[in-house]
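Exercise: predict the fold of this chain.
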Amino acid sequence: MSPRRHEIAVEQSAPGPPLVVRLGISWLTNALVLAVVAALLSGVTVRNAGALLEAAAVFGVLNTVLKPLLRFVTLPLAILTLGIAWFFVSMLMLEITKGIVSGFHIHGFWTLVEATLIVWVVNMVLDWLPGPWQVTGKRRRRRQR
């Protein structure tokens, strides 16, 4: 007798665009988000399009590399504050971006708070709107459901 072979069906999603395309879309999406922030708040200034693209790149790298690490480190505090601590982590990402990119300025603490809220709202809207930004990260996983 031959041994029985069991095959496991694995659901595979269609491969997405290449990494370079996904990074480019993510970068431009961050630029869009930061442009919305600058358009809505007089306390947020961007010297030119180059500074906006630089800020978007820095912001994207910080959100990809540093933010998850800080969220892990602040997990106990986030539990105690019902997640409010993570709002401050998001604020820190904008503050670090401001510190690195000379042409991107956020003037004042309350402007930083408002900017963080706007980034959150715009990202929430983009999560639900169909568009090319749906091919990256969390948005891609949501679209595949």
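Check your answer against the key: The mean pLDDT is 84.
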